[in-house]
Specification:
There is one protein chain. It contains 14 helices and no strands. The chain has helices spanning 11-31, 37-41, 44-77, 81-90, 92-95, 98-109, 114-123, 131-157, 160-167, 172-183, 185-200, 204-209, 220-230, 232-261. The two termini are 15 Å apart.
Length: 262
């Protein structure tokens, strides 16, 4: 088959767009102290922060899938006026500064917030400045990425196959499991990759809601910011760790998502 050619006019802005993303990373590599780089990247503090980042990002991605997946399905399939009004609220974290989201979580689930008082009264649980707070902050900012991706996939897939299955007598749960879900797997995969990557790089909401406690809430982005004030070379080395992890995540997950779309 002969592929569809692209207009020549698209190449110049495409190259500039690529350069805008790639050149800062190259500049980071050129600025790094190559002699100290291995030592800085494998320090105990860096490895602790990296493990915490990977753990919390994985848990928040799972939570995003469990909550954001059904939410995207409701937004895409429901014709309720209330659901249409709820959609801008769901997507609000996309446009809010993350630190504002962190403050909103703090004043809702903190000790003086309504949710925080109930949690402490009923269960004796305090959420802020714990690892759970990191997970909630990451989920807050990353869930809209999954919702947008999956909702778009659901709308593109349409409802014709679901209607056929329903006409043949399949129950709604069976239709969703056997028809809807296989159709939107590429969109779901893309959304989960985006959610994990966003969680891994989350900073603002985390620092506002969870603070920066070593081994408990200090993820790698927070450690990078802290090191920037005292050791520029250390901050650059830790930034490169984040870059490497992000590249690995995208490189491993993206081909599988693309295969599902074929």
């Amino acid at each position: 088959m002969v592929g569809v050619g692209l207009p020549v006019v698209l190449w110049a802005p495409a190259v500039l767009g690529f350069a805008l993303v790639a050149l800062p990373v190259v500049g980071l590599v050129l600025r790094a102290d190559l002699v100290r780089l291995p030592e800085l990247m494998t320090s105990e503090e860096a490895l602790t922060a990296l493990k915490l980042s990977l753990f919390t990002a994985a848990v928040s991605t799972l939570l995003t899938a469990l909550l954001g997946g059904p939410l995207a399905a409701v937004l895409a399939r429901s014709r309720s006026a209330a659901v249409r009004l709820a959609r801008p609220v769901v997507l609000l974290p996309l446009v809010l500064p993350p630190v504002v989201g962190g403050l909103a979580l703090l004043y809702t689930l903190g000790r003086t917030g309504p949710g925080g008082r109930l949690l402490e009264l009923w269960f004796g649980v305090t959420v802020p400045f714990t690892t759970a707070a990191v997970v909630l902050a990451q989920t807050f900012v990353s869930m809209p990425f999954l919702v947008v991706s999956l909702e778009g996939a659901l709308r593109t897939a349409g409802e014709r196959y679901e209607r056929v299955a329903a006409t043949l007598g399949a129950a709604p749960a069976t239709v969703f499991r056997r028809v809807t879900l296989p159709l939107v797997l590429p969109g779901l995969g893309s959304g989960l990759v985006l959610a994990f990557a966003r969680s891994l790089g989350e900073f603002g909401a985390t620092v506002a809601f969870a603070g920066s406690l070593e081994g408990t809430t200090r993820t790698l982005p927070l450690l990078v910011y802290q090191q920037r004030e005292v050791d520029t070379d250390g901050a650059i080395a830790l930034s490169l760790v984040l870059v490497v992890v992000a590249v690995v995540v995208v490189a491993v997950a993206r081909p599988r998502v693309a295969e599902g779309a074929q």
